[in-house]
Specification:
The protein is of the alpha+beta class. The chain has two domains: about 120 residues, Aminotransferase class 4, branched-chain amino acid transferase, N-terminal domain (D-amino Acid Aminotransferase, Chain A, domain 1); about 160 residues, D-amino Acid Aminotransferase, subunit A, domain 2 (D-amino Acid Aminotransferase, Chain A, domain 2), CATH 3.20.10.10. The strands form two sheets. Strands 7, 8, 9, 10, 11, 12, 13, 14 and 15 form a nine-stranded mixed β-sheet that branches. Strand 14 and strand 15 form a beta hairpin. Helix 5 packs across helix 7. The longest helix is centred in the last third of the chain and has 20 residues. It is globular. The two termini are about 30 Å apart. About 35% of the residues are buried. The structure holds N-(5'-phosphopyridoxyl)-D-alanine. N-(5'-phosphopyridoxyl)-D-alanine binds next to helix 5 and strand 13. The site of N-(5'-phosphopyridoxyl)-D-alanine has 14 residues, from helix 5 and strand 13.
């Protein structure tokens, strides 16, 4: 496996990072995950914008977010992948000693890797997913896609006894987002997702936007409003969206069968709509 480290593509075994890297010591870094179909990145502009924002809000300097597409392209070429997920992580870099306050003029550590994922024709049905409902214990700045993810990992571990693959996080009685996804619920023809620019905030999910666009194209009513925890149990459908899974449909909630145990009608219609949008994008890509 070849990876990207600080401007070079090299075999994973040769990619060494200092233990004094602030990403390792403090989780002082940010990241992006981009899904590629046939070498074309989904929602690439939105990923660049979000990366720019994460860099700006964390004062991590020395990487230009607009380099993202070229970096991904080089990595995909080196790995000979067309359908893949690219993970990019930028930490504040290596300091001479462990101190919370970063030194001036520190150079970021830029690491990226790619792994194969499903081709576009896998987006014909929504993948089934088991969910658990957990308290949202994270900090207030979840619009920053930062690598310190303990607050996302613990709720997933707490949902393991329900065999849940993802946790729906609850803040003050309302759904915030998933531990690594955005959440939608469907009631009749109404597709509902929580707002993003709240305080505390949630991640501005790229697939969230594409799912809303696809739902609107199908003539569904899309509402952005707070979702009460109690609405989950009575929802017709629950979806999670994210660059890895794109859109998955809930088949079990807190260990109990949900929605007949298979991804529901609208989840499948919307993922098909997302597939058509990518097909159109690919048709326009030289
Ligand atoms: N997770 N919310 C959270 C907390 C996330 O971690 C993610 C993505 C999303 C969805 O964002 P997008 O649609 O842009 O992928 C929402 C990635 C995939 C991860 O951590 O691996």
């Amino acid at each position: 496996m070849n990876v990207w480290l600080n401007g070079h593509i090299l075999p994973l075994e040769k990619a060494h990072i200092s233990p004094l890297d602030r990403g390792f010591l403090f989780g002082d870094g940010i990241y992006e995950v981009v899904r590629f179909f046939d070498r074309t990145g989904m929602a690439m502009d939105a990923h660049i914008q979000r990366l720019e924002r994460s860099l700006q809000l964390t004062h991590i300097k020395g990487f230009n977010a607009r380099e993202l597409p070229a970096l991904c392209e080089q990595l995909l070429q080196a790995e000979n992948l067309r359908d893949a997920c690219v993970y990019l992580q930028i930490t504040r870099g290596v300091a001479a000693s462990r101190a919370h306050m970063p030194p001036e003029n520190i150079q970021p550590t830029v690491f990226a890797m790619a792994h194969a994922s499903g081709a576009l024709d896998t987006l014909t049905t929504a993948a089934p997913i088991s969910l658990s409902v957990q308290p949202d214990l994270r900090w207030h700045r979840c619009e920053i896609k930062c690598t310190s993810l303990m607050g996302s990992i613990l709720p997933m571990l707490d949902g393991r006894h329900h065999n849940a693959q993802e946790a729906i996080l609850i803040r003050d009685g309302f759904v915030s987002e998933g531990s690594s996804s955005n959440i939608f619920v469907v009631r009749a023809n109404n597709v509902i997702t929580p707002p993003i620019d709240t305080d505390p905030s949630i991640l501005h999910g790229t697939m969230r936007t594409l799912a809303m666009d696809a739902a609107r194209k199908l003539g569904l009513e899309v509402s952005i409003r707070p979702i009460e925890e109690a609405e989950l149990a009575t929802a017709n459908e629950i979806w999670v969206t994210g660059s890895g899974r794109v859109l998955a449909g809930c088949v079990a909630l807190n260990g109990k069968v949900f929605g007949g145990g298979k991804p529901a009608k609208m989840a499948c219609a919307v993922i098909n709509g997302m597939r058509l949008a990518v097909e159109n994008l690919l048709a326009k890509t030289p």
